[in-house]
Every structure is written in C-alpha cells, then in structure tokens.
Design goal:
Layout lengths: L8 H9 L17 H13 L6 H10 L3
Length: 66
Amino acid sequence: MAEFPAINTSPLIFLTKGNYLSLLQVVSPTFIVPDVVARPILETLKQSGMYLSDHVINEALKMINE
C-alpha cells in the first residue's frame, strides 16, 4: 500500500486563497485530507454558496477509507 502525505487545514486555506494549491504537487501527486480537516472546509464552502452533495462528500471519504 502506498503512503501519501497528509495535510491539515491551514496550508490548504493559505494555498487556496493565494491560488497556489498546485504547489502541493511538487511534494506528491496525492494527499490524504483527514475527515477532521475536510468536513470544516467543505462546510465553509457550502456556506459560501458552493454546493457539494453529501453523496459526493461521502464518496470522496470512501476513497480515502475515512
């Protein structure tokens, strides 16, 4: 089983706001975003008007075995 780096909330927010999220690919093409990190970010996106269905969220979490 391949091991991927995990990332927490602060770098995701910082890199997204600066439009530099692609810089993460320098480290690894795949990252693990723990549920405890993903859920608050997804909730913030929903509150800002972006809609992600619970189905999409749950499928994404299944892909990372959360």
